[in-house]
Amino acid sequence: MSESVAQPASDASPDHQHRRLRVVRGQDGVDLAAAQRAVADLLTALGRDATSEHLADTPRRVAHAYAELLAPREFNLTTFPNEEGYDELVLARDIPVQSLCEHHLLPFQGVAHVGYLPGDRILGLSKLARVVELFARDLQVQERLTKQVAGWLQEHLAPKGVGVVIEAEHLCMSMRGVQARGSRTVTSALQGLLREDPRSRQEFFALSGVHA
Ligand SMILES: Nc1nc2c(ncn2[C@@H]2O[C@H](COP(=O)(O)OP(=O)(O)OP(=O)(O)O)[C@@H](O)[C@H]2O)c(=O)[nH]1
Ligand SMILES: [Zn+2]
């Protein structure tokens, strides 16, 4: 992943002392032409006529679809000084999560609840969902995705604590294999006070709607 720092905000009045970090993750080595050839080979291997009118353009579509699913959108990580000394939890509930399981290349999807206890700075609210997408648009396992979101926020925001819960249904578990339709997997990652302080931890899970 590569990151670059954007221009500082031009409005330097105290109310607008925000800082921005441009967060960029490209398609990390996606070779579209090779992917297209591989999809054509897969169709042939599956006994399909990859040259038929219906399938002729499918390799191109699939290659582009995977490239898109593996490339999170760029965003500015905008933070503001915590001038009011806000010291309670900030929690964004029910952030949609869509990712691809690295074992079967099938989607898993659900919601994330992401919260933090502010330190010196607070975060633009939309950025919690942006960070989820940053790691979800990858080949993933849910546990790693959960930890990456928490670790990244801890590193870049330096809050007093951070917590992430993800609840997701894996199509590899519901459409095929065990076919446990409707089963959702819940994972969590906590850092700082949300991990160490029982009251904060309990409050985070309560606000997330998870009974711990
Ligand atoms: N821990 C974890 N496992 C996952 C995740 N996504 C998929 N899996 C599991 O990865 C495992 C891969 O196991 P294998 O036995 O190699 O694959 P399989 O033969 O297709 O297994 P079945 O799904 O049981 O048919 C399966 O149990 C999947 O349910 C995830 O995010 N986290
Ligand atoms: Zn899977």
Automatic annotation (TrEMBL):
One of its GO terms (cellular component) is cytoplasm. Residues 36-207 form the GTP cyclohydrolase I domain. It catalyses: GTP + H2O = 7,8-dihydroneopterin 3'-triphosphate + formate + H(+). Keywords: GTP-binding, Hydrolase, Metal-binding, Nucleotide-binding, One-carbon metabolism, Zinc. GO terms for biological process: one-carbon metabolic process; tetrahydrobiopterin biosynthetic process; tetrahydrofolate biosynthetic process. Pathway: Cofactor biosynthesis; 7,8-dihydroneopterin triphosphate biosynthesis; 7,8-dihydroneopterin triphosphate from GTP: step 1/1. PROSITE patterns: GTP_CYCLOHYDROL_1_1. The keyword Ubl conjugation does not apply. It is an enzyme of class 3 (hydrolase). Pfam families: GTP_cyclohydroI. GO terms for molecular function: GTP binding; GTP cyclohydrolase I activity; zinc ion binding. Gene3D superfamilies: 1.10.286.10, 3.30.1130.10. Zn(2+) binds at residues 101, 104, 172. Its EC number is 3.5.4.16. InterPro entries: GTP-CH-I_C/QueF, GTP-CH-I_N, GTP_CycHdrlase_I, GTP_CycHdrlase_I_CS, GTP_CycHdrlase_I_dom. Homopolymer. Belongs to the GTP cyclohydrolase I family. This is GTP cyclohydrolase 1. It comes from Nonomuraea rubra. The lineage of its organism: Bacteria, Bacillati, Actinomycetota, Actinomycetes, Streptosporangiales. The gene is folE.
